[in-house]
Amino acid sequence: MSRAYRIRVRESIQRLVRADDRVSTQLEMLEILPCEQMAALLKRELVGRGFTEKSGKLTRTKDGVNVTIETETGTVSVAAELSEKVELEGEKETRAYTDVGPSAQKTKQALREDVRADLERQAQRRQQDLQCEATDKLEGQLSDLRQELDQAINRVTAEALKQKAAQMGQIKEMTEDPQSGSLTIVLEV
Amino acid sequence: MKVVSRFEANLLRILHFFLGRVPREQAVPLLLNAHAQPPCLSATAVELVQDALAKGLTLVLARGGGWRRERHLRGDRVADGRLWERTPPAELGLAFSRHSLNFLVWVTAHKPATDKPGWAAPIKELSPADSLLLYLAYSALHGSLRGSEAAPLVSGPALSRNALCRLAYPDDFLDPAEPLPDFAPWTTGLGACILEALQTTLAQRWLETERDKAHVGQWQELRARGRAQEAVLLAFLQAVETARRLDLARFLLRTLARVLTPGATADLWGTRVVQGGPRMADRVETTQAALALVRQTDRFQRWERAARGVGFFDDGYEASQLTKTDWERHGGDDLHARAQTILRATDPLRVQTEGHP
Known about the structure:
The complex is a heterodimer. By secondary structure, chain A is of the alpha+beta class. Chain A has helices spanning 35-48, 101-168, and strands spanning 5-26, 52-54, 57-62, 65-70, 75-96, 170-177, 182-188. By secondary structure, chain B is mainly alpha-helical. Helix content of chain B is 55%, strand content 3%. Chain B has helices at residues 6-18, 24-32, 43-66, 83-86, 98-109, 128-145, 157-160, 163-168, 189-197, 199-212, 219-242, 250-259, 280-290, 297-308, 317-329, 332-346; strands spanning 70-74, 77-81. Chain B has a two-stranded antiparallel ribbon with strand order 1-2. The termini of chain B are far apart. The A-B interface holds A 21-25, 27-30, 76, 78, 128, 131-132, 134-135, 138-139, 142, 145-146, 149-150, 153-154, 157-158, 161, 176, 181-183 and B 278-281, 284, 347-353, 355-357.
């Protein structure tokens, strides 16, 4: 005997999927001046580069990537966070001997669970895709950030050297080559 | 001729296997099968066990490294010579508790597959000699039984919290919830002497552990191994630092000298597999874990720098000289520079300071 009834169920889910990735490192700064002065120089340099102070840390968010620097310890944290509201819909159908009664209810329930499982898998895949996006975003910005921090450290070091030289004697001559990053200071002690 | 029962004969054979006197092929079948445990052992058997432990463990320590002429600390002074020349033999006596015999009876009587929890004994009641026997048993069983149905033989809290087992086989204990052993008893007295004798063995084990990483196929496994190593390293190095027995960590410097060769790169530590990690955070964490030992060069350098500051008339002058000698003998400055190069190369954000004005 053929199954005469077609049972169809439709389900939808809403999920807020989140993905994040982060790396952190320590800035290597030469201790030309006492730590507090070096930290102050670094802070000034970073503020000039668009960082803002928030609860004792300097932060900047650009293209969804957040950079946080603790000038006292030299800890740099870079994080990318993404979130997305996902709405998924699915539908499935099957054939049954009847469309009423406990047997039909059971069939519908099984079908509904099947659709939900499918939708959950899709949401999970979306979460994985979002995770890849977050990682790619982070990786994409690291190269530029590394260069920028390198420049910032160079400038801080140069400034610290000038201040140190001024403490040691009278600066007679100072030549700076931004291309090569070299700095020559002639002192009279 | 001394006569013992079948069970006692099996027990003695297993003991001699642990002491390296019986080939594995003869002992493993005995270990894999259960044997009916008698209510007690005969006086003859106990006497033979005592004799085997007294002579066998002493021989293992002497052959393992006690015979080498080494320099180690005794208080603030440096003692030179073989182990029994550095410490009076009377102070090197190995005292076994009843737990050693209990362990031997257990390991002979039980079929490992049916006794999952493994052998247990109160950790605090184990003497250094008991712990040494357990370590030798673990070492003997490590290669042949690990991962097999006999795994319970090498599990259990008494072995997982054995400082020597954890120090020699750190990546066998991957469960981060597993409590770390207390290394303090191994930095003084007989425990420290045993550790001195095992320096060569430990260096060899760590070399194998470091080289094994290159063959790990999964980044999760590499991270778990590295974390387990790091936990042991930090606990051990802190213990020797607290006890001012930096010479006991010499085997790690020896290992570093063998692995941090000129031109060494992070790939030697298997860090290629981290590319499979889904997140950068995972990749960085895995790389750092894989380089757990390499990252300790900073601590060794700190010790050496501190030793430099100790003057001739200061306390601990001889100890500081020994620290400096160890550092120089193993090319510490070069090792540190190579380690830093590797660590910089694996840090995705490391800002280079070279070329500064």
